[in-house]
Amino acid sequence: MKIATGLITSKVLAIFVGPSGMALAGNLKNFMTSVESIATLGFQNGIVKYVVEHKENEAEFKKIISTVFISLLTVSLLLSGILFGFSSYFTQSVLDNSAQYTIVFKVLALVLPWYATTAFLNLVLNGLGKYRSVIYINIIGNIVGLLFAVAAIWYFKTLGALLSIIIPPALLFFVVFYYINKDFPFFATISRHAFDFQVIKNMSSYSLMALVSTVFGSLVFLAIRKHIIAVLGIEQAGYWEAITRISNYYLLFISTMLTVYFFPKLAFSKSKKATKNVFWSYYYGILPLFVLGLIVLFFLRFFVIQLFFTKAFMPVSELFFWQLLGDVFKAASLILGYQFFARKLTIAFIATEIFSLLMMYTFCHFFITAFGIQGVVMAHALTYFIYWIILVIYFRKSLF
Fold it and tell me: What is the number of structural domains in the chain?
């Protein structure tokens, strides 16, 4: 459902706002990823873990829910004030000095607390094992997001595209609240007396890993896109956003398999032999099928561009080879990267993540000058090749 609605939204964006509007939408999505991660304090994995562990213990469960909710609400309200007060600054920094889009950040400031609360409640439902409810919520969210995006883009063009990124997730609060209230009275569970700093301390390692990955990563990609706009023009940035969207859709299959199936197996592997079996079952069973799918996609690239975008996006065809090659190395790296979370290797994860992002940023600057927009996808391929080699060396004892 997410892939289907995303592809339809991409088609509507391509028709009504073109490459330039898609580039601005990409900038805002990167910024939103950072804001959402800060607003939820990077607690996503920690919330699920501790809800799973303490859902049968009423006192501990109340302590976790109260502490996290009060913390997230406080941070999101603070962020809202900053976003509203400095909306002109964020417009200039994120949306290339387009003053008419200042309203976007003011709206974001108003909806952010709802946005953060929705994300929190969804994670609680996940931790409680209410997978059917989580699936329904996500399906409803994708449909609402699609309908809102089509209507907003139709009437307001680029402004509508930007608003469709930030408003639908906040509207989903009412749906999530309905589902969670069926399991327990949420607001009756919240108590400031149950607030416990130990809960924050316990989640700190998860928080640090998530914040470094999402906040730093999103800001690096935002900086790269702004550099492309400054050097090559906004349309070239739109072409990169288009190939990135295609990449995100097919990588969703890999990330879903890793999250649902392989990560739990890694987490419960008690020996190097068991871990090795998990790694190689992925490399033998999943990765070859993924590579085969990318080869087919490469030969169908002209058809795919016309189907999901417009003829104005045909230059994107020149970016496919390096993007797909980079995604093969990325897919090969992801299974190893999940071992950082499975073993809570916080320092190693942060070091490799920051190093890979700095590589990407540096390579982009050099390659854009030498090869134009193709330089970005070449940097993507080289970065993930080196990153994969580093992870293979780091986890060599578990692999071999």
Answer: 2
Q: What's the rounded Cα separation, in Å, for the pair 44 and 40?
A: 7
pLDDT along the chain (400 residues), means of 10: 89 93 92 88 79 83 91 94 94 81 94 92 86 88 94 93 92 90 82 86 79 88 94 95 94 86 79 90 94 97 94 95 97 92 84 95 95 97 97 92
Residue 363 included in any domain? yes
Domain boundary among 196, 223, 256: 196
Residue 209, in any domain of the structure:
no
Q: Which two tokens stand for residue 289?
A: 């099928």
Q: What's this model's pTM, rounded to 2 decimal places?
A: 0.88
**Residue 242 domain-assigned?**
yes
Report the 10 Å Cβ neighbour count for 295.
12
Q: Which residues contact 253 (CB under 8 A, 6 or more apart)?
A: 290
DSSP string, 157-221: HHHHHHHHHHHHHHHTHHHHHHHHHTTS-HHHH--GGG--HHHHHHHHHHHHHHHIIIIIHHHHH
Clarify whether residues 257 and 192 are in a common domain: no
The domain of 165 spans: 2-196
Strand ranges for 283-346 from DSSP E: none
Cα–chain center distance at 256: 12
Q: Is residue 201 domain-resident? A: no
